[in-house]
Amino acid sequence: MSKDSKKPLSTWNLNPAPESTEHIKLKEQYELFINGEWQKPTAGLYFDTVNPASQEKLANIAHANDADVDKAVKAAREAYTNVWSKMSGKERGKYLFRIARLIQEKAREFAVIETLDGGKPIRESRDIDIPLAANHFFYYAGWADKLEFAFPNKKVESIGVAAQIIPWNFPLLMAAWKIAPALAAGNTVVLKPAETTSLTALKLAEIIEESGLPAGVVNIITGFGDTGSALVNHPDVDKIAFTGSTNVGKMIQKSTAETDKRLTLELGGKSANIIFEDAAIDQAVEGIVNGIFFNQGHVCCAGSRLFVQEGVAAEVIQKLKDRIDTLVVGDPMDKNTDIGAINSQKQWESISKYLELGVNEGNEMYQGKCAIPEKGLYFPPTIFIDVAQSSRLVQEEIFGPVLTIQTFRTVDEVIQKANNTPYGLAAGVWTDKGSKIFNVTSKLRSGVVWANTYNKFDPTSPFGGYKESGFGREGGLHGLASYLK
Ligand code: NAI
Ligand code: MG
Question: Which residue in 31, 114, 195, 300 is the catalytic one?
Answer without folding.
Answer: 300
